[in-house]
Write a structure and sequence with these properties.
The two termini are about 15 Å apart. The longest helix is centred in the C-terminal third of the chain and has 19 residues. The protein folds into two domains: about 180 residues, Glycogen Phosphorylase B (Rossmann fold, 3-Layer(aba) Sandwich), CATH 3.40.50.2000; about 180 residues, 3-Layer(aba) Sandwich (Rossmann fold), CATH 3.40.50.2000. It is of the alpha/beta class.
């Protein structure tokens, strides 16, 4: 089984790829992954999967023929039974190679489906050419049907999943929290508001700054956790505004961390402030798995993962006052209220959004296609 994506650096697409590769290996199948590489290759190889480095991320037309030939040769040489593409540029190459090799082709649509032009729409359209098309939320599924006239018989909705062994509040030792507190210089006795997201315009860092300005100065300490992703201008543009609002001592851009479970546990409230709808929003289920209140903007995938008033709050998008109100509500919970919310949130994720469920549903999609092609199923 071969999965193809641009790179194995970080993010939900990469994490889902590794998770499914692990499930395939555990089911007795060979798991191959093609990408241009990255830090997560080592994790992939540790679980027994095979990585093949190809520049399938490249949008340079001069690379396309070479990538197609090399990928097609790989499919024949490794006797690949099914190809699963997780991103648009690699999908164009993988689709043609799968057709040439005569094997089923699956896509997972992780991206926001909006297309501002006919050219962009054409570029996106490869993701609905799969023999099966996996949408990571009902929001994405609806957009694919409405915007691309996708045949619903080919469509499967498989939400992303959390590693419940990793994101377990009972498994985060105090020393891990102390390490982050010291590294990030978190002040004592002040509630922590956490925004875990790459520092990009649409993730709503500026909106959260506006919301923090509506709270009592110094009443919270905000941690912006996430890499700049080459867009330092977003952070640079925000810093003068943060200073002008008198929030510099209370807002800290800490970069990425390799211990997100501890970061969540350190937080009193987790925020997802995306300006545009999230296709799914892994942050929201990770926060709930850790028993933390989540305040998220009321659109996209958030509506499918956050139970308003039970596991968190959904607030009006692009509304700083509404976001501030959600944060106030989360911080106003007493100890009993926080405990009840945490129990509901953890149970909600364990019931609906586990890594096991995501992988099992994905392997079921593979089996549907392999059965019809007479190639057998995982575990045979």
């Amino acid at each position: 089984m071969l999965q193809v994506l641009p790179a194995l650096i970080s993010g939900g697409v990469e994490r889902g790829t590794v998770d499914v590769a692990r499930a395939l290996v555990e089911a007795g199948w060979r798991a191959l992954v093609v990408s241009r590489g990255g830090p997560m290759v080592h994790e992939l190889e540790r679980i027994g999967a095979t990585h093949v480095t190809l520049p399938v991320h490249s949008k340079n037309p001069l690379d396309w023929r070479s990538n197609f030939d090399r990928l097609t040769d790989l499919l024949w040489r490794e006797r690949v039974d099914l190809v699963h593409a997780r991103s648009r540029m690699p999908a164009w190459i993988a689709w043609r190679a799968a057709r040439r090799a005569g094997v089923p082709f699956v896509t997972t649509f992780h991206q926001r489906p909006a297309a501002a032009s006919a050219l962009k729409r054409l570029y996106n359209s490869v993701m609905v050419r799969g023999d099966r098309v996996i949408a990571i939320s009902h929001y994405i599924a609806e957009r694919l049907v409405n915007d691309y006239a996708l045949d619903t018989a080919k469509l499967r909705v498989i939400p992303r999943g959390v590693d419940l062994g990793l994101f377990d509040p009972d498994r985060v030792a105090a020393e891990r929290l102390v390490r982050l507190v010291e590294r990030w210089r978190v002040p004592d006795g002040v509630p922590v508001v956490l925004l875990p997201a790459r520092v990009t315009q649409w993730k709503g860092h500026g909106l959260l700054v506006d919301a923090l300005a509506k709270l009592e100065r110094g009443s919270v300490h905000c941690l912006m956790v996430g890499e700049d992703d080459g867009r330092r201008s977003v952070k640079a543009a925000l810093e003068p505004k943060i200073a002008r609002l008198g929030l510099t001592p209370h807002v800290h851009f800490v970069g990425r961390t390799d211990d997100m479970p501890a970061a969540y546990k350190l937080a009193d409230v987790v925020v997802s402030a995306s300006l545009d709808p999230e296709p799914f929003g892994r942050v929201m289920i990770e926060a709930q798995a850790m028993g933390r209140p989540i305040v998220a903007t009321d659109h996209g995938g958030a509506r499918e993962t956050v139970l308003h008033g039970e596991t968190g709050w959904l607030v009006a998008p692009n509304d700083a006052e509404a976001l501030a109100g959600g944060i106030r509500a989360a911080l106003a919970l007493d100890a009993d209220g926080r405990e009840r919310l945490a129990a509901r949130a953890v149970a909600h994720v364990r019931e609906n959004f586990s890594r096991y469920q995501m992988c099992a549903r994905t392997l079921t999609v593979y089996s549907e296609l392999l059965d019809s092609a007479g190639a057998g199923t995982p575990g045979d």
